[in-house]
Amino acid sequence: MSNINEPFYVRYYSGHSGRFGHEFLEFDFRVIGDGRSATARYANNSNYRNDSLIRKEMCVSALLIAEIKRIIKDSEIIKEDDSRWPQKNKDGRQELEIRLGSDHIQFETAKIGSLGDVTDSADPEGLRVFYYLVQDLKALVFSLISLHFKVRRPHLEGPERSDMVALQIKPI
């Protein structure tokens, strides 16, 4: 397990400006205080069909942060360099920033539509590491948000309990 007190921060952004304005997905995890907890923030803006900005924030445990650190370390993304990756373009960009102990890295590349885009790039091995790490982190974030809305309050029983009481993530 990694050192609970080491500095840690991870942020992912994917977005573009187009027909429906600035549309993006962004999330981050940031350790707070003594390292025993962290905040997770999520934002999704899509103006398609007049959707509005969705912002969520929640506290997560040190155990979850330890797992995210393990995923990042196992991916070996720290060893990669984005200099030969596709540059951002009209289709948008992706950014990944990681602070893990004394390491701090920041990547920027074009949006990746499929694994074909990865294999056709000038650095397919490095971009593949980025692609799979981002997929893992996005799956984790979407699972956390989905599960959070399904948590029931155990202290509410009987008629005062609504059909499906769910705790909601605090909007920011």
Task: Describe the secondary structure blueprint for this structure.
Blueprint: E1 8-18, E2 21-32, E3 37-45, E4 54-61, H1 62-75, E5 93-100, E6 103-110, H2 115-119, H3 124-148
Antiparallel strand pairs: 1-2, 1-5, 2-3, 3-4, 5-6
Question: CATH first level: which class?
Answer: Alpha Beta
One letter per element, helices H and strands E, the order comes to EEEEHEEHH
Find the CATH superfamily.
Mago nashi
This entry's quaternary arrangement is: single chain
The residue-averaged pLDDT reads 85
Number of strands: 6
Q: What radius of gyration results from the CA coordinates?
A: 18 Å
CATH architecture annotation name: 2-Layer Sandwich
> Total helix count?
3
CATH topology label:
Mago nashi protein
How would you characterize this protein structure?
The protein is α+β, with helices and mostly antiparallel strands. It has a single domain, classed as Mago nashi (Mago nashi protein, 2-Layer Sandwich). The chain is 26% helix and 33% strand. It is built from 3 helices and 6 strands, in the order ββββαββαα. Strands 4-3-2-1-5-6 form a 6-stranded antiparallel beta sheet. The two termini are 31 Å apart.
Entry summary:
This protein is of the alpha+beta class.
Keywords:
single chain, 172 residues, alpha+beta, Mago nashi protein, Mago_nashi_sf
